[in-house]
Give the backbone structure.
Amino acid sequence: MTGGRLVLVITSPRVAPGLLSHSAWDAVSGSTLRLTRDLDEPLAEAVAESGFDVEEVADATPPALARRLVDLAAAESVVWLGSSDGDPGLSDALASEVSRLELPPGVEVVVGSWDVQGGRLLDVVATMDRLRSPGGCPWDAEQTHESLAPYLVEEAHEVLHAIGGGDRAHLAEELGDVLLQVVFHARVAEDAPEQAFDIDTVAGLLVDKLVRRHPHVFADGDASTPAEVEQAWERIKASEKAAGVDGGGGYAADLLHGIPSSLPGDLAAQKVLARLRRRGLAAAPDAVARLEQARAALVAAEAEVRDALSALAASTTPDADRPTSALGAQVAAPTTTSAPNSAIAEPA
């Protein structure tokens, strides 16, 4: 690097600071002056640990810092080691400073590291940890697996609604809400007095399961069509259950094994029918007919509940004008016989 040049080395805060690109290390080693806002910055520490001198600049506003960097770069090869927060305002200040000079030094931005795919997941984990830790959010700190359970159901249904609506931006937002539930539950589990686990445990178990159940991708399995993949998945799952992996035995002998009692009836029916198909089994015609009649009745009952809710919403009045009635009393004070997920409180 020749004199009269300023290089800004920027990195991803989600990548180890010493893992710099070749061009970044070339800029660092070829400079005569390496500056940083704070010697405790991860990138500055990594460069200093590699044997290069790094100088700390005093606190300064972006315009003042930009002027100093440009002035120094008029005679030296200067490298600015970017800060973890991205040095807000510095790039604009540098552009203004350079534009006022007749013969400004060259300014170059060198990317030292890029975010890997999934890097923002680290931000999700860190944010959730901040919310649950001392000094964070009191509402988040008091939640349990039980108190959060209704939100998981609600968010899953909102994803289905977004899929049906065809709005991709809305779908991305709702998927984020489901992801929050996973990260939230994992963070709650870290605080458990017994059998604690964390998000890495959750992710590790998921990866292990995906690898086990896709031998046609990760091993020597020979499934090559979606139907063959489904059949292989069913065989592997049955083998795992029989061996006590992923929920214990009984899976192969019981079509209802592992299906939660809280799963909506129509989804439970779909799951059992899918197991029938994958296992190559056939049910008695009268049993199938009875199931279809029950599913139709369930759809009708659901529609009636929706209509009743619409009527209820349309009939509401301000509290001062609300007449006393049995229904009003039930709405004001739900009975203890309500289903666990029938009322979902919104967080403050």
Q: What stands out?
A: The CA atoms of residues 327 and 333 lie 10 Å apart. The radius of gyration is 30 Å. DSSP finds 14 helices and five strands in the chain. The chain has three domains: 5-111, 117-196, 213-288.
